[in-house]
Amino acid sequence: MRTFSWWARLAAAAVTLTAVIWTLGAGPFLDGVRAVDGRALLAGMAIGVLTTTCCAWRWTVVARGLGVHLSLPAAIVSYYRSVFLNLTLPGGVVGDVHRGVRHGRDVQDVGRGLRVVVWERGAGQFVQAVLTILVLLVLPSPVRSFMPLVLAALAATAVGIVLVGRARRGRGRSRWSRARNAVAADIRAGLLRRRALPVVVLASAVVVLGHVLTFLIAARTAGVTAPPSRVLPLALLAMLAMVLPGVAGWGPREGATAWAFAAAGLGADLGAATAVVYGVMVLAASLPGAVVLVAGWFPRRGLSRLGERVSIVVQPKGAADA
Questions:
Q1: In whole angstroms, what is the distance from residue 274 CA to residue 262 CA?
Q2: Are strands 68-70 and 310-312 parallel, antiparallel or unpaired?
Q3: pTM of the predicted model, to two decimals?
Q4: Which of 34, 74, 186, 233 is the most exposed place for a label (fewest CB within 10 A)?
């Protein structure tokens, strides 16, 4: 069933990309590729260093709360590899799965390694959703009329997460009780503890701002002359679509950006070209991950071993709340 769902999402991304190309033609895509210049690539790579470091920092903090010690240099190396795999392989999550499984094997607990990655990525996406809704409530956008309902749903979700995280462990032996206790313990230790929550929020906010800045540079490079205040809501809408599975990073991004630009009166062609420039910029920024991946083929090299230095630490009771 999971395999079918994965292929269904991948097929949907391919259909979306095909529909955009069929509707707009190849012109906007070629224009986007031709518009990319050295300044845009350098800017994307510089921003990528910041965003990847913040993601890795967030990962180490969540991991520490769940009992896994992970150094920041090792996390940065692994995160670069993860981003590169996400951008070059179908589905958009292969790198994250690889990161979780690999470190899970290193600490002899694959389940724990995957849980850390799930909570780390989930926290980042939640902060992104909050920032997106706040901006869309203030600035004009094609979806502004729907934002009060979205804000109410997000607030309910946040309250639910906090309640689950603060729930006491039950004594039930059912599968549901064990799952609920495990989720509550993970949220409480990995995300809501005093030393974790500020870091998770700050790091995630910087990552979102970095991606937005990259998008604004991509829009300017593609020829968008509208002020940043008009493009910012469109950038956040496009970034929400990027969470969906794509074909090596392509598909939902181009479809959402073309629709958002068209709805805002900037033209679908310009939106598709902006999405292409953005895609090239983030791919260039992820290239250090390709170096890490190649270095991993030589296990005696220091770079590949750096990404493997993780270990389980046993924390005394109450240490996670210190």
A1: 12
A2: antiparallel
A3: 0.83
A4: 34
pLDDT, mean over the chain: 82
- 147 to each of 125, 138, 165, 293, how far by Cα in Å? 17, 10, 26, 41
Interacting residues of 152 by C-beta distance below 8 A, sequence separation 6+: none
- What CA–CA distance (Å, rounded) separates 98 from 118? 12
The answer on pLDDT for 113 being more than 80 is yes
| Cβ contacts of 143 within 8 Å, gap of 6 or more | 136, 237
Reported as a single tens digit per residue, the pLDDT across 154-174 is 788 877 777 766 665 555 566
DSSP string, 29-90: HHHHHHH--HHHHHHHHHHHHHHHHHHHHHHHHHHHHTTEEE-HHHHHHHHHHHHHHHHHST
Cβ pair 257, 156 in contact under 8 A:
no
Q: Model confidence over 1-23: pLDDT tens digits?
A: 555 555 565 666 666 667 767 77
Contact present, 82 and 292 (Cβ < 8 Å): no
- CA 319 to the chain's CA centroid: 29
Dihedral sign (CA 231, 54, 290, 63): negative
CA angle in degrees (0–180, nearest 5) for 246-253-78: 60
Measured from the Cβ of residue 124, the count of other Cβ atoms closer than 10 Å reads 22
Rounded to 10 degrees, what is the CA torsion of 16, 20, 26, 27? -150
